[in-house]
Amino acid sequence: MQHVHLFETTPRDGLQNEKFILSTEQKLQLVRGLTECGFRKIEVGSFVNPKAVPQMAGTGELFGSLPAVPGVNYYGLIPNRKGYELALAAGCRHMGYVLAVTETMNQRNVRMPVAESFAQLEEIREQARRDGVRLRAYLAVVFHCPFEGPTDLARALEWVRKMADLGVEDICLADTDGNAAPERTALLLDAVRPMLDRMGYPGILSLHLHNTYGYADRNARLALERGIRHFDAATAGLGGCPFVPGAKGNIPTEALVQLCHEEGYATGIDQEKLAGLSRWLVALKEQKLAVGNSR
Ligand code: COA
Ligand code: ZN
């Protein structure tokens, strides 16, 4: 049976745009729950300015208390050099670097031109090799940008090529605003895979979907048909980018697991445990919203 690998991002992408904030202890409970469901890659937070994203404050502290579970890797998102240093100091050895492929989105998200983001990534790539850090790269708005419209296919491909040349271990194609119309998703995936094969890229190609416009399910299906075996997802479909107007949730992990199982793929995920964890999280959310964003 073929395996589909799920990258669980609830503690990071799931929480970063919500109107409630989990305490470090509650995040820890969430992460523990995810490991018990069977997830092996969990993005537990981001090393960003807490003034920009208060939901992600305390990620360093969280890294200090994560349960060591054999086979489980914990990821942290980084936006720049400083993020790398903070993550390294916190003991994070799996990092995801975010670079948006349009100028407007990159400026809004990480406050620098795309070329500067790339220059920092090149330095981080070298440093990561020396430090034994594994690096994934998020290509944000690679399908569609909320400010600049549909992303030019050639431009998207060029960025994928750059990431493969750099030798990042995982290239994550992110539909940041959930506006990747399925025919465009198919077009890009059909072009990316042969290009990476020609380059002999040995790493992972991941897909990061959002459900803002209801495209996530169709995109996941067509990606599965095209051989994509790595997907990001968030429990209960929480999430979104704080710098994207009207951003909505990630593809729900539950839905993706269900889809994979229906299509005959193994995920290693216990659906009952996941459903329980999701209920717990949604109840916690409701409770927090009712009392007004308190910890
Ligand atoms: N983590 C924490 N603090 C950081 C940081 C990081 N990765 N990078 C910079 N800072 C701090 C600086 O130390 C400085 O602190 P000070 O005000 O106490 O002196 C302050 O942020 C400003 O530094 P500067 O380099 O001018 O950063 P900036 O204001 O241009 O902001 C980011 C850049 C990336 C840190 C900020 O825009 C950010 O955190 N964005 C969030 C991105 C995000 O999480 N998006 C969603 C996920 S994709
Ligand atoms: Zn996202």
TrEMBL record:
Q: Which UniProt keywords apply?
A: Lyase, Metal-binding, Pyruvate
Which residue range or ranges hold the Pyruvate carboxyltransferase domain?
A: 4-275
Gene3D superfamilies documented for this protein: Aldolase class I
Its GO biological process annotations read: ketone body biosynthetic process; L-leucine catabolic process
Carries keyword Transmembrane helix? Answer: no
Q: Specify the signal sequence span.
A: none
Answer yes or no on keyword Metal-binding. Answer: yes
UniProt GO MF annotations: hydroxymethylglutaryl-CoA lyase activity; metal ion binding
Please name the Pfam families in this protein's record.
HMGL-like (PF00682)
Q: Of which family is this protein a member?
A: Belongs to the HMG-CoA lyase family.
What's the name of the protein? Pyruvate:Oxaloacetate transcarboxylase domain protein
